[in-house]
Design a protein that fits this description.
The structure is a homotetramer of 135-residue chains. Chain A is mainly α. Chain A contains 5 helices and 2 strands; from the N terminus they run H-H-H-E-E-H-H. Chain A folds into 2 domains: 64 residues, Winged helix-like DNA-binding domain superfamily/Winged helix DNA-binding domain (Arc Repressor Mutant, subunit A); 49 residues. In chain A, 61% of the residues lie in helices and 6% in strands. A two-stranded antiparallel ribbon of chain A has the order 1-2. In chain A, a hairpin with a 3-residue loop joins strand 1 and strand 2. The first copy, chain A, is elongated and about 55 Å long. Chains in contact: A-B, A-C, B-D, C-D. The interface between A and B is large, with 38 and 38 residues. The first copy, chain A, binds a DNA duplex (15 and 15 nucleotides) through helix 3.
Chain lengths: 135, 135, 135, 135
DNA sequence: GTGGTCTAGACCACC
DNA sequence: GTGGTCTAGACCACG
């Protein structure tokens, strides 16, 4: 299975963290189904062009969060995430991100109207981009 | 002068970065006026309960950005920020923060309607909180 | 013959070890009689839903311990275990397990009274459960 | 501060796991107080005669469990564990260990009287050993 | 000085 | 083939 992960070499964000974040999203949003066998750490490391250790760390961390299950000699699988948990997590993630953004707006004394207008612009832009990409 | 900076001990965000971000906001948003004499490095370090090295770094960085000006033997002052610059900065900051949040929403397949509804809730909550606090 | 083995998929304990431990107990405690013909490797692997390699390893290990005997073309049999050996093994197994548990108690500074009280509770619970199940 | 950790070179238990288990016990049982600055990873690695990486892994894992707090450039501290949490954890740990031991006893058909007698012997032995050591 | 990340490479255990 | 552990050593960021 091909796992769509984008790595930004120039970012200050650690490699393992970029991979972790994206893989977590893929699992929780349901884009990778429960029970799926992920690539072996060596294979994944090859395709991501990073060290085996980095992939291992990602798998290990996500296993710690209960999102993956791994069995020695067999491989690493996507563990079950209940639909409830998934929805709850999705919502939490988004709420957290938006709260941080609104806090930022407050800290620079951006008015309610202004931040709302900016938000609408961004959403329109990003979501239309998506539709165009899909079309 | 008392500079209102909140440090989060538990955050993974480096100390110097927390301070820098907040001080920058205070200056650019105009909450600290041009020409204000900031506390000495040692005094500030004392009140923030952090190392002088950390404060020195903050002052240096912001001086590098042209937001502060240091006069030998006198102290560190807030440099002038044009109204244009201020507005541009405010907008940029908010746009950046919201874009990141919307990206997060996209990554977990949150719909346009859902993210908008969440956003409105948060804005209402945060901005009313503010008004109540001011009242 | 149906061999009652419970496999815990989520445990970190290797498959072969789970099976080995349980099969060893069954043989030594006499729950599988001497001379019993065990299932073929393939059959057993099928019913345990694991690899034949895993079952082969179990049979080999237990044969190495003298608990099983393999006859070419015939199958794998339970070897004889003297009553003395059986009693010694039972006692050793239990002593070992309890020692480990008490060590754990010591390591967290659990008092003698407390650990004894907890033990009694567990024994009462587990052994009554058993009687109820049998009744 | 001197952290009393015993490493068993010959054990099959991974190094990092031995260290983790013992350090966790020390923290939760309150033998290392909240706020204590642990040795730096390099120093600890030296005294334990193992790799820096192994110590780092231990600190990282325990931080993940919320038992440690680490700040770059400063060091690693013991995080607060409420008295309630501590007692609950202690009890859970012991209960778990004893349940496993009693299960083992059941699996080899050890009688209630027999296992109780063995337990008493072990407790007497271990706890008296302790008192002698302290005296 | 501290921790944080990443590397390459080895050896083992499991299936 | 798979994952699990441990190593040495490098380089960076933080205080």
């Amino acid at each position: 299975m091909r796992i769509p992960i984008q790595i930004n070499e120039h970012s200050a964000e650690p490699l393992y963290h970029q991979i972790e974040t994206q893989l977590r999203s893929l699992i929780i949003s349901g884009q990778i189904e429960e029970g799926t066998l992920l690539p072996s750490i060596r294979e994944f490391a090859g395709s991501l062009n990073c060290s085996v250790i980095t992939v291992r760390r990602v798998y290990q961390d996500l296993e710690g969060e209960g999102l993956l299950r791994t069995r020695q000699g067999t491989g690493t699988f996507v563990a079950g995430v209940g639909d409830q948990t998934r929805e709850k997590f999705k919502r939490e993630t988004v709420v957290e991100a938006l709260e941080a953004a609104v806090e930022t707006g407050l800290s620079v004394h951006c008015s309610e109207e202004e931040i709302t207008s900016i938000f609408k612009g961004i959403v329109k832009h990003k979501y239309h981009q998506l539709k165009d990409g899909e079309a």
